[in-house]
Amino acid sequence: MRAQDNPYTPNAGARPPALVGRDEELEAFAVLLSRLLNGRTEQSMLITGLRGVGKTVLLTKFEEMAREARWITVEAEITNGSDFGDRMANLARRALLQVAPRARWKKRAARAAAVLRSFQLTFRSDGSVSAGFEVEPAEGLADSGRLDEDLTDVFVALGEAAQEHGTGVVFLLDEVQFLDSLEFEALIAAIHKTVQRQLPITLVGAGLPQLPRLAGEAKSYAERLFKFPRIGRLSEEAARVALADPAERLGVRFDPDALAAVVAYTEGYPYFLQEYGNALWNGTEAAPVSAADVTLSQAAVEAKLDGGFFRVRIERTSELEQRYLRAMAESGPQPQRAKDVAGLLDRTSEQLAPIRARLIEKGLLYTPGRGLAAFTVPQFDRFMRRTYAL
């Protein structure tokens, strides 16, 4: 089979050729847009899940759906150490210019530009990002120096401008878990106020499984403001479709036992399905793809995952952190008690607490419950066991 015809997409955030198993989330997003644009309230969304389950893919699909519904979309990936106030001002500016070019601004859009100018002058002394507006800052709005109050002013003004121009704005933010508590609190407070005003502005974010806890810690009412759909592995049926359909469109069939073997190995995780499909396409001489082909390709799949998907994460860790991860892997993929992991390393959980905290900060672990930690990457335990000695 020709490599140039390979339909599989084992790339970060790339949409798979068959987007399956996410109908519930897609329907919920469509309802969110429809209700807000009709002046009704609806909970925003924070999608959670492990690495490689398709959170970024969903955000991309949401953006496409929003644009088709004539919404304004602005998207960004949150990173550690970024200037959040400056970043949000840039996104709000982009949104306002999509609501209407300056020559077509109505009263509310002009006011939003003035509020945004105030915000920029408050959080960046040179005001460089909003300089192109050439407007006077709005006195008494977005100029308190408190991020939660000032970002709220920006969101309300932007929502009113969008409403005046017959559209809405959706912020699509990836890696939301990297927000610090004050930034998350400000974002939640701003969305809360737009809900109270019934404005067509919303937030859809994506991040690791600790997002519900982080949101609740930032604002107690976050659980009523957001839906927290958690996405994970595909069902067996959906996984078969994700693997088989792209090939069948090109006249290539999988034997049933080949499909079963790939689904069993990948456990239905979307990224792993794409990697295995890619390897099978490039390594199989002719259709149909058999169970023997699956067996022959497994080493290539593991080498690709180990050298890329897993390696880029483990290379950010110290030797002590790697030992901690390897000890966790000894007991499998399920959440591990800090006490049990420490015991495998002949240490106390108190002694290893800083190591565990650093791994959480680096996004390799998350805490599903008190005293527990789990891998943020599917099958990371397999990788650690075949790569590192305990």
- The secondary structure category is alpha/beta
Order of helices and strands: HEHEHHHEHEHHEHHHHHEHHEEH
N-end to C-end Cα span: 41 Å
How is the biggest beta sheet arranged? 5 strands, parallel
User: Unreliable stretches, pLDDT < 50, 5 or more residues?
Assistant: none
Helicity, as a percent range: 40-55%
Strand order of the largest sheet: 2-3-4-1-5
User: Taking Cα atoms only, what radius of gyration do you get, to the nearest Å?
Assistant: 24 Å
Average of pLDDT: 93
Total helical segments: 16
What coarse outline follows from CA principal-axis ratios? globular
Give the amount of beta strand, in percent: 5-15%
Count of individual beta strands: 8
Plain-language structure description:
Helix content is 54%, strand content 9%. It is α/β, with parallel strands linked by helices and 390 residues long. The radius of gyration is 24 Å and the shape is globular. A 5-stranded parallel β-sheet has the order 2-3-4-1-5, sandwiched between helices. A 3-stranded antiparallel β-sheet has the order 6-8-7.
